[in-house]
Amino acid sequence: MEWNMRELVYYAAVSLDGHLASPDGAFDAFSLEGDHMADLARFADAIPTAGADHLGIAQDRSCFDTVLMGWNTYAVGLGVPGGESPYRHLRQIVFSRNHTGAGENLTVTDDDPVDVVRSLKDEAGSSIWLCGGGNLATQLADEIDRIVFKRHPIVFGGGIPAFAPNAYSPRRFDLVDTKAFTSGVEVVEYARSR
């Protein structure tokens, strides 16, 4: 994958109706079996560190060196071994106005996400992964350079949307690549129109 600059990349699994999770916040309906799983190697840096270690997948930070999460996305892993620092091979920045904390390569901050992203883009390094959730994606909509969605053949009918409802002007993205798998999963990649 050749990206020209340090980009903010929104990389996430979504349902056909554009949700990151079901109405009860669950995301376990996304299939972890099938031929689409081979595509994970392309985004090895987006696999939790413990999972990649277990699977013998190398993570060299060539794709992403930083991950951004809202508190609710981060909190999914709390209570799971290694969940306090799920992507310890990356610099992890968790945005929260109500929580504090730190861990290995992890910072919880109440700084403005736009200011943080603009500062990160000025640094040298690999791309910045926007892991989720929808509220954070909405706050960063003008900073997102690329969207890569793993669209699963399920409909939640509600839940956590990829972008939270907000009154903003439409943003245009151009289709860069699409890969369809027999599992029914489709990986679609868009770049911001310039």
Automatic annotation (TrEMBL):
It holds the Pfam family RibD_C. Residues 8-185 form the Bacterial bifunctional deaminase-reductase C-terminal domain. GO terms for molecular function: 5-amino-6-(5-phosphoribosylamino)uracil reductase activity. Coiled coil: none annotated. Gene3D superfamilies: Dihydrofolate Reductase, subunit A. One of its GO terms (biological process) is riboflavin biosynthetic process. It comes from the Bacteria. This is Dihydrofolate reductase. It comes from Rhodococcus rhodnii LMG 5362. The lineage of its organism: Bacteria, Bacillati, Actinomycetota, Actinomycetes, Mycobacteriales.
